[in-house]
Amino acid sequence: MPKGNYWEAVRILDEEIINSISYYFVQWKGVDQNGDPWKPSWEPETNCTQALIEDWRNVKNSKEIVIKNTRQVCRRSSVASSMTISSDDESKALEQILMNEIYEGQSQNCNNITSNLSPIDPETTSETSTIIGDDETSNPQPNREAQNTSNVFASIKLISPTTKRPMSDNENFVEKDENNFSVKKLRTDKLSRDYESIDELEKQFFSSKQSKTALETPPPTTPSSVKDHLSDSESIISDSENELDKTENRKINCLATTHSQDTNSNDLPYLINQTSVRNEAIATLLQEREYYHKTVMRFENDWKNQQAKNEKLTQENNQTQKELHDKQIELSNARLQLQQLQEQLTCMEESCNKKDEKARNLELEWEDIKKQFDFRHKNDQEQIDKLQKTKDLLTEENQKLTSEIENLKVAINNASQNFSINRHSTRSSGNVKTLRVENDKLRSQIKMMSLKCELQQQSTKIIEEAAIRHESTVRFLLKQMNME
Asked: What stretch or stretches form a coiled coil here (predicted)?
């Protein structure tokens, strides 16, 4: 079968009522994920089927019936020890009636009892039924037969008289039961009253024994109530033992008092018969006391086992709490790490938002710079075009001036040659001075034109350098944008 996928509720082992809600201790069938059998667990009533709850109620009722029948059988055993039987056939009939009543009490829900009740040691539950035969010469030995009938039989003593002596009508009377079985009462009213007092003591004892049934129910498994339950169990056991001792002592004292008061009677066979009856009653009480002592010992063993289980549960609970504490520490550390990661993520988101905002600002700046560059480039281009045209004009003028200067130089040379050749010619001095003045003017104009040409060339270089600088700035900004 697949591990951890099979589970089935077998039966209910116990019931607890907490805050008006029923909780059942369910036994499971199957294995968990590790291959281990499922352990019993407490489940609310809503998690249990109606069939399981009905089975548990039948088992619970059957336990109560068995305890009740056991008390009735124990009471009948004490009553039977105080009766006299008229004959052997009547003795057998009475024994059969009592056994039938016992089996009728046990026949209800027999299947549930045999399948759900925990096994008990046969030594503690073996019961004896003693039948004393008719022997007028000697006191017969009891015939003991061990009977193990579903661990609920109580000890039964059926005693037949050792002497068959007729009794007067004023001392006893015959009473018939529903099966027409004749039972003779004891002789004296005083002895009947004594046995009635014994019955009252037995009632007190059985009522006190109800406290022992509290030990059969398992204590609560919560650690807070373990110590209280253990102390209550110890007090219940000690009180039950004290009550048992007191009850047995009262019974024995009552029988001894009755025996001492009846010794004055002159009816020797009757006294012998009553003595044997009392001895058998005392033996029955001693056997009952031994049985109850064994029951108390069994309760003590169960209590010790339950105490060991409680200690084990306490250790498991402490281990679970320790593991839970470790898990809580791990969870707190994980939460702290998660908080740190969330803070880092928040910081990264803020930095990304800042970078996005910076990128948007750079884009806006780039657009502004681009617009300014386009505008300046357009203006610079227009100025460059104008300067280029001016340069061309100046170049043409410069060429013209250069040609004129050369012409003037040629003219000057020719004039100087003519002057040297015709120095002795009759030329007026006024013409010479005029030529010199014109020559000086021409030279000054040539210098001015050359200076203008140089200034124009320098301004052209400055404009070209500014244009180159603007282009380098634009390229640098483009590189930064691409890198971001």
From this structure: 296-452
